[in-house]
Amino acid sequence: MISGENIREDFPILFQKVNDERLVYLDNAATTQKPTQVIESINIYYSTINANVHRGVHTLAERATEAYEGAREKVRKFINANETAEILFTRGTTTSLNWVARSYGEGNLKAGDEIVISYMEHHSNIVPWQQVAKKTGATLKYIGVGKDGELDMDDAAKQITKNTKIVSIAQVSNVLGGIAPVKKLAEMAHAVGAVMVVDGAQSTPHMPIDVQALDCDFFAFSGHKMCGPTGIGVLYGKRALLEKMEPVEFGGEMIDFVNLYDSTWTELPWKFEAGTPNIAGAIVLGTAIDYLNELGMENIHQYERSLVEYVLPKLEAVPGITVYGPQNPENHTGVIAFNLDGIHPHDVATALDMEGVAVRAGHHCAQPLHAYLKVPATARASFYIYNTKADCDRLVEAIYATKEFFKNGTV
Prior knowledge:
Elements: H1 4-8, E1 17-18, E2 21-22, E3 24-25, H2 36-49, H3 59-79, E4 87-90, H4 93-108, E5 114-118, H5 127-136, E6 139-143, H6 153-159, E7 164-170, H7 182-191, E8 195-199, H8 211-214, E9 218-222, E10 233-237, H9 239-244, E11 255-258, E12 263-265, H10 279-295, H11 297-316, E13 321-324, E14 335-340, H12 345-354, E15 357-358, E16 360-362, H13 367-373, E17 378-382, H14 389-408
Parallel strand pairs: 3-15, 5-6, 5-7, 7-8, 8-9
Antiparallel strand pairs: 1-2, 4-10, 9-10, 11-12, 13-14, 14-17, 16-17
């Protein structure tokens, strides 16, 4: 078992005070903090090997290309893709899902076809499909949420039909924290000839991922939610699908030959990566993967589960609190959304910040889910590897202090 106390030593940003209180950072679903190894990796790249990739034959260009493609191989191993040609570097999960929607979706859907998502999706896995449905005439359908706060698989069986061509689901909800059975959903999708798209933004940083075992057709995730830098993400796609898809961005790097009136594309994965890529971002994402691999993804998963098992009962014992999501810690990641009776979530987050506890408040880019839950917003605490049981206790104490303040005006 890993130790959050020891891991904290690698994250310099955590050793500061906010409002004269020790910082307790619980906004990890939005972005994670960066270890010293990652911060130093950025400096090393720009100080020693900065150059454009693939085009130059000089030493720095060759070093940069080797490191950039080496990072692609690290990603491949990390999610167990079959080959590096199936790993595309993007700006993040949102870009990855948009590429699938615009290239595969618009290229393969027609009126009468169905796209199936769920009420628990992030806007990045809703809005692109709305646009595809409008352009193609396809129908957008939603899988409901069960009373336990998990995906309603009985409803999934009803929504996925012979007309379904795409099923796109978040493996972990960024609000409810539940883990969706994407392998089972992939089986259901493939049984009717549909492709399975997985939003892995909230799962990849927290548990082992094996895209071949999941048998998903596309898998998207972001670097900044897994100790890496912002502006870098990944789209995995099965080679057979990627080969048939058209790029959504055009220009340098992704071409094979350009004449006056037509062009041809280079081979995978580069045919999708137009222009100068985020070279530093990809290389430093590789450093973040090295860091997580050293800890062990299963160890991370079990450690975070131990935090949830510790804090969830304490939160549920707070008078006037509503905790959303699965009640079973075994199917609950470190994302916990809640509300306090009579106090707006934004006021809750502001009050917690005065105690040094950083949480998120709002609809978390999941407005359809909040409408489904019949609440305008929630407060959200989200845990990661450097959080501890002491952080859990500070969250609970700060919630009690918040309740006291709004009741009596004192802490």
